[in-house]
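Mods, move this if it's the wrong board.
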Amino acid sequence: MSDIVIKVEGLSKQYRLGQIGTGSLAHDINRLWYKLRGKEDPYLKVGEENDRTKKAESDYVWALRDVNFDIKQGEVVGIIGRNGAGKSSLLKILSRTTSPTTGQVKLKGRIASLLEVGTGFHPELSGRENIFLNGAILGMTKSEIKSKFDEIVAFSGVERYIDTPVKRYSSGMYVRLAFAVAAHLQSEILIVDEVLAVGDAEFQKKCLGKMKDVSTQQGRTVLFVSHNMGAVRGLCTMGILMQHGKVEQQGPVNNVIAKYLINPSAVFNNILKDPNDSIVIESVAFKNSAGESTQNYKIGDDLILEINYFAKDRFEQPYFWIGVESQFGSLFGANMLIDGKRPAEVNGKGTIACRFKNLPLMPQTYSVWIGARASDGRTGLTKAKEVGFFNIVSNIQDLSAAESDHAEILANDSTPVIINYEWQMPDGKTIPVNLFN
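Not the wrong board. Structure tokens:
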């Protein structure tokens, strides 16, 4: 395998909906009979891909289907995809907590994984005892675990409760300690699922920094699953896009994220529709100043959002709001509660649009959130929801005379908003910088 530490070949995982085994004694005997004769499982020939947008026609579903990829030592790989794409099933097989239906996984080295809150912890044991338990599972000696113990506790921030049974921990404390254990104990491969979303923003940032450190400084391989594209872009070098249990694309992380985010029509119809919403957001179209649907904009372009809604009743003077976020959090938005502009009424189907002029944003990916409130400003009519994404695709080097080869990389990690400024040099000379007109 040379420098390849994870090799996945023809990996598939099938489940039967609502059943354990094949669902009947006759099916189980039939499966055993085929196995004893060295023949293929007859139930592998049936089933359908795991597409939640289609009505199921079979009791069998393929969570993964013919997955193939290689991961080299020291790579940080982001595994992305929509809910139900097969990401967690893949990580469970890689972590050896479940077995594949067909195919094989070849691993080189020990694995530390953090798949969900409480993974690998015994609830009746204290935090201290669980640290030693996890170390022993990884094959570490007691003295090796002791040498890492203080570092683990300091990183987790739960020193005061380290001798308390973990069943009394909050979910946030659980994740803090679990990540600290996984990141600091001696393993060659670190697997982290979306569980970090349970922690607070400060700890998430701390974890992302630690994952980058264990890769660049210790040469460990990291597999990271997240719906936060900013975090994936900032941490990972390579990406794998999963769709309906299959690998849709793999390669440099920026290319994979672009494939995941780009909607060919730039009209988002698959928005989570809350049945409790009084005003239902049915679709959102992203357009440029020419009225063309797109998700790609240059620095200084206009962004037009057309929001198609359905009001279940007649509402007078509701407040709509729109928020734009980056990997760093909220940036700016439009809020009728602040500007005082609002429609006289909404009733049934309708469209409301907002134009953001001259986007002063760095080349990154941004998400858009929408919500609505009643005329009293307090009663919610549309629960806040993420409705889509857009990209700033300008070349940052076109904005200035900077010759750095790292300008594009720095732009991805930089504070997103661009403003004009000026430098005053030691000789007293003032130099204006106009990156944005």
